[in-house]
């Protein structure tokens, strides 16, 4: 038995992209896979119903056969059916046909059958991933998904962290939330435990590189004053009038970034849009001049945001050049958090990876994409510039990615991946009714 099972697992895990029939993954524009979908859905629903019946089978049923035959009972079911019929009619009459190749009005597309089925199956169990005891099945799954996203985006899964959000907007909020809190941390250390940052000016503290600021968290913990320091960060004291500096984003940014500046108290006047070039990418010359102008005025840069797949044009900022620019400024004593908004284009990075999640060499990638018929016809995608941008994505400190876009997962499913999980200490909160006191 063990030998057969092991052989089956080996066969299953050795499957490659050539073994997958894409047409078998979706319900289809004509519901071609309807029988499979309905049969599997019935199986999942039956599984849940059996689970309910088998949970303490000695308990009596709350509704007897006689009660279920009564007029008001049947009338209640009938009214429920009518409401659902109205819902179905409205959905069919006014919804967008994402499933059809004829519709290209939005970035949405069809969703995977397995995602739809899993979604409907999981909702019956009503898990709450805020607490492990309320989601003993789905919390480990989310941790696994977070590691997979981090790996796909080029982060080391041992040090990084990721999780599912309701959408890309919340993921963007979270990225800026971490950048904001981290920016204020060195100043808070100076206030509570100045010996740990002895000899450093406020300007130097406001320009401490991300990794050094994260290392400082460890030093503060060892000094036994982390809670006191954290209460003196912007998390406890508020942002103040331009106290921390500005956030630089391309003109092509998603509108959620403007909302993030408002919600997080940074203020729209401290939210600077950088001009894009003729191909709708952040203009690197303008970005450099913008940074120089603010540095000359002693205004810190909280974060720079690059976009991989803009909403309107699908443009990809020069991520590699932004990363190089950050490294150059760091050598000059100017540092900022780097976030990549890859809500739309993040999943495309999977095309650049081999079966072991290694980023392929450019020539090998081009040959592979055409030999596997991922692309057909005479064109040069991806260009070397796009290739370098996707290769440089791991240089970011955090990345937004939306499974509900190119992951073909139903709404709502956004996501964020973070390079160094230590930063979570600056944004974490614990509810007394959910977590044990003193646990972090």
What keywords describe this structure?
Aspartate Aminotransferase, domain 2; 7 strands; single chain; about 450 residues; 16 helices; about 45% helix
Which helices and strands, and how do they pair?
Elements: H1 2-13, H2 34-54, H3 65-69, H4 71-94, H5 113-125, H6 138-152, E1 161-165, H7 168-192, H8 202-206, H9 210-222, H10 226-231, H11 234-237, E2 246-250, H12 256-263, E3 271-274, H13 284-296, E4 301-307, H14 319-331, E5 337-341, H15 362-371, H16 384-392, E6 398-400, E7 414-418
Parallel strand pairs: 2-3, 2-4, 4-5, 5-6
Antiparallel strand pairs: 1-7, 6-7
Helix pairs in contact: 2-5, 7-9, 7-12, 14-16
CATH architecture of the domain at 164-426, by name, is 3-Layer(aba) Sandwich
Query: Which oligomeric state applies?
Result: single chain
Low-confidence stretches are: 1-15
Helix content: 40-55%
Strand content: 5-15%
Number of helices: 16
* Largest beta-sheet details: 7 strands, mixed
CATH homology group of the domain at 164-426: Type I PLP-dependent aspartate aminotransferase-like (Major domain)
Q: Which value, in Å, is the CA radius of gyration?
A: 26 Å
Q: Kindly state the mean pLDDT as a whole number?
A: 90
**Strand order, largest beta sheet:** 1-7-6-5-4-2-3
End-to-end gap: 43 Å
Number of strands: 7
**What is the molecular shape?**
globular
**CATH fold name of the domain at 164-426, please?**
Aspartate Aminotransferase, domain 2
Order of helices and strands: HHHHHHEHHHHHEHEHEHEHHEE
